[in-house]
Amino acid sequence: MNLKPITDLSKLCIHTITTKPWTIEEAARNYAAHGVKGITVWRDALSGRNIKQTGEMLRQLDLTIVSLCRGGFFPGKEKTKRQAAIDDNRKAIEEAFELGTKMIVLVCGADPAQSLEDSRMQIKDGISFILPEAEAAGIKLAIEPLHPMYADTRSAINTLAQANDMTEALNSQWVGVAVDVYHLWWDPQLEKEIKRCGKNNTLLAFHVCDWKSPTVDLLNDRGIMGEGCIPIKKIRSWVEATGFNGFNEVEIFSDIYWKQDQSAFLKNIISSYKKYL
Amino acid sequence: MNLKPITDLSKLCIHTITTKPWTIEEAARNYAAHGVKGITVWRDALSGRNIKQTGEMLRQLDLTIVSLCRGGFFPGKEKTKRQAAIDDNRKAIEEAFELGTKMIVLVCGADPAQSLEDSRMQIKDGISFILPEAEAAGIKLAIEPLHPMYADTRSAINTLAQANDMTEALNSQWVGVAVDVYHLWWDPQLEKEIKRCGKNNTLLAFHVCDWKSPTVDLLNDRGIMGEGCIPIKKIRSWVEATGFNGFNEVEIFSDIYWKQDQSAFLKNIISSYKKYL
Questions:
Q1: DSSP assigned state of A249
Q2: Average model confidence (pLDDT) across chain B
Q3: Which of A229, A234, A235, A255 to mutate to test the interface with B (most CBs of B within 10 A)?
Q4: What chain A residue is nearest to B232 in terms of C-alpha separation?
Q5: Chain A interface mutation, best of B186, B213, B230, B235, highest count of A Cβ atoms under 10 Å
Q6: Burial of A165 by CB count in 10 Å (0-12 exposed, 13-18 middle, 19+ buried)?
Q7: B161 to chain A nearest CA, in Å?
Q8: What is the ipTM of this complex?
Q9: pLDDT digits over B176-186, tens only?
Q10: What is the pLDDT of residues B69-123, one digit of tens each?
Q11: B149–A152: do the CB atoms touch at under 8 Å?
Q12: Strand partners, B70
């Protein structure tokens, strides 16, 4: 494994949802004060704010706005639901443009009332519909495959192979994939599929956290890097072997950590980042 | 989809753990009284009993003992743990022989302290070690791939492709696979891989239940068939297209149903079986 050790925070990005109890202003000030260089903004963090001014505030703190999280949720057995999703994704593209980020992460969606095959067709159609707006705004769309335990409602795209297949089928420089170790670590095809999107120049984002044993909640029990069993260093080595030079994005949903003092949690993230990435 | 409707209970098997509050004697009497023809025995249900006599009791009730559940859990970073697993699997083979069943289901195991690749090698070695005893006892070993959400501690074999790969590598008429819709429904390769084990004559068991939305517990929140989003009929059609003529085994772990009256639950299982399989 050929891996450069992490010596600074120049490639560390944190998702606002990771420190959910903080407002985006608190998060940004604290991230910047600790030397974090990137931020991925969840849309709920922008609620009630002037998005353009918020983007300026982040840049003044020397934070790169890595992406807006999240678009997607295209499938729906009912046409009205699918149309609402298209509208919401167009709104997300506007928000990303105002914020001044160049990427939107797509959690593609699924509807348990229909087959996964139907959901996948609707995802492909949905992305096709919004592609012209994304291109006009200069925003890349990153398809994030989600863990198979989310195949009922959150994503019918559950492996990197599927995300790569869809990216190749859409065949646009504005579409790529996000690799999140939490969703993909178990997959025996992961190294091969990371190479594949690397070759295609479609590896757009790299998300990290850890899988705890035991994990007691399907959604909000993610671990800090080093706390679980994901071979993060190995996966980072595969990602970087493709030439990926983007941020390492820390995305942790945790009822446990959200209850703790967020400053202490941030320090824990930073020290774990240096040690376990 | 070419699928014969279910018209009777001649192929219905229930796992003792499905009605966990019942003793094996209660379960067997109730299953038989309702016309259920098969039972899969979980080892804990045999605790403190004469296993041979228990087997006779089940046969007198005209129940086919489909399998003993479960062997496996081969991996361990420590050698002592791996040796203990081998010993326990040999004990399981003895128990299966005494009980008079011809199959053991293997939940293969994983150890979060080591890589999935190491766990997989130890699983292969472990099965190799116990194969002579299985063959001597006339017991088939069914490798059950488990959902990727169990890759940390329960199984490093998470897709049917992996189980088929391992079965082919072991190359013994005493080793095959168990297909459980709960673990595998999300996998876009499922139809192809069911065909593959069908062709190899290694499809040994078919387990059913459903995936609820939302699922609130990683282990004990399975649904009755029809209650969730798994395309059970479609998967049964793939399984039967291979020529599989074994039992449809209902395996439900549910804190909710275990709290209910088990007779009512059994009636619910039977009516759902007729409707949704």
A1: E
A2: 98
A3: A229
A4: A115
A5: B186
A6: middle
A7: 10
A8: 0.97
A9: 999 999 999 99
A10: 999 999 999 999 999 999 999 999 999 999 999 999 999 999 999 999 999 999 9
A11: no
A12: none
User: Using CA atoms, how far apart are residues B215 and B192, in angstroms rounded to an integer?
Assistant: 27
- Shortest alpha-carbon distance between residue A162 and chain B (Å): 8
| Tokens coding A17 | 């949802």
- Pick from A199, A273, A274, A191: nearest CA to A1: A191
Q: Distance (Å, rounded) from C-alpha A176 to C-alpha B252?
A: 39
Q: Which residue type, as a one-letter code, is found at position B45? A: A
3-state secondary structure (DSSP) of residue B138: coil
- Which chain B positions have a beta carbon within 8 Å of A182's beta carbon? none
| pTM, full prediction | 0.98
On whether the CB atoms of residues B137 and B96 are closer than 8 A, the answer is yes
pLDDT of residue A139: 98
d(CA B175, CA B135): 10
Query: In this model, does residue B1 exceed pLDDT 80?
Result: no
- Residue in chain B closest to A149 (alpha carbons) equals B149
Q: Which of B123, B152, B234, B235 to mutate to test the interface with A (most CBs of A within 10 A)?
A: B152
**A148·B152 Cβ contact <8 A:** no
Count the alpha carbons within 13 Å of B109 in the hemisphere toward its beta carbon. Answer: 26
Please state, in angstroms and as integers, the Cα–Cα distance from residue A70 to each residue in A104, A106, A143, B104, B174, following that order: 6, 6, 10, 45, 49
Tokens of B148: 């990727």
